[in-house]
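Field notebook, page 278. I keep forgetting to write these up properly, so this time I am using the form the group agreed on. The chain and the ligand, adenosine-5'-triphosphate, are recorded exactly as supplied. Prediction of the bound pose follows.
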Amino acid sequence: MHAVKPGDTAIELSGVTKQFTTDSGTPYTALRDLDLRVAPGEFCAVVGPTGCGKSTTLTLVSGLERPSAGSVTVHGQRVAGITPGVGFMFQTDAILPWKTVLDNVSAGPRFRGVAKRVALADARDWIRRVGLAGFEDRYPHQLSGGMRKRVALAQNLINEPEILLMDEPFSALDVQTRAKMSGELLSLWDLTRPAVVFVTHDLEEAIALADTVVVLTAGPATTVKARFPIDLPRPRVVQEIRFERRFVDLYHQIWEALRAEVDAAYSQSTSLGEKEAS
Ligand SMILES: Nc1ncnc2c1ncn2[C@@H]1O[C@H](COP(=O)(O)OP(=O)(O)OP(=O)(O)O)[C@@H](O)[C@H]1O
């Protein structure tokens, strides 16, 4: 595992521009001159209007995409391929439907060559930690949405990733399950403390979870608008922290920055719709 030194940076995007070529062949600048730095063990939430480039930012860190300009480094190494030591969680489940919970969770270590007996024992431990003891032999279709998210968390955390990239991982869940999963995520994160980049549309969720909330501007040519340190003490009770005075103050402050971008994105999409209709 990477030895963390003071001042170390887990993730650094520096002057990043990302251009795509659209289906009509014209270039589209999704990100322009974007700087983002995440320290080892930091929980960073990224919020911004729809389509501004949140997922694109994650794909650059993961190595699935390359920047058109600027640099992306992970632990000081320029990203040049699929980044090792990175876990992912998306809105849709990435667990294998034909494998049991135990086989899904042990798949990572088995793939890395860990002996079967050790991988299975480790998987049983993680299954217990995510609250699924007794469900080892179930298949994903026999589980609720929240339980499948727990499997996905165990499947990631068993690999002790130094970086966890999460793209609206709980947005398909009902409100109560979502709040519960957020609380569980924080307890589990505390066990191995990876650096997290958590993309969400939900500002309450962002503040409740994160050490830092980063607000992106409306696209195109998205960049970082502002960065807010969240000084709420840990451990946090996710379902209750939103009633605290400091939480409400932070919410107002960050929403002020976010609202202008949401409004800008909305007017862009409505004027585009009007142009297309005329
Ligand atoms: N492969 C691609 N080719 C062309 N354009 C793309 C591609 N991937 C993303 N884009 C465009 O880049 C912009 C940013 O997309 P991205 O998915 O990163 O936004 P997002 O903030 O994650 O969106 P949402 O909040 O709706 O999930 C969008 O306008 C999208 O259409």
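OBSERVATIONS:
- The beta strands are 11-21, 27-38, 43-47, 69-74, 77-78, 86-89, 163-167, 195-199, 212-216, 224-229.
- The chain has two domains: 11-85+162-277, 93-160.
FOLLOW-UP: compare against the apo run.
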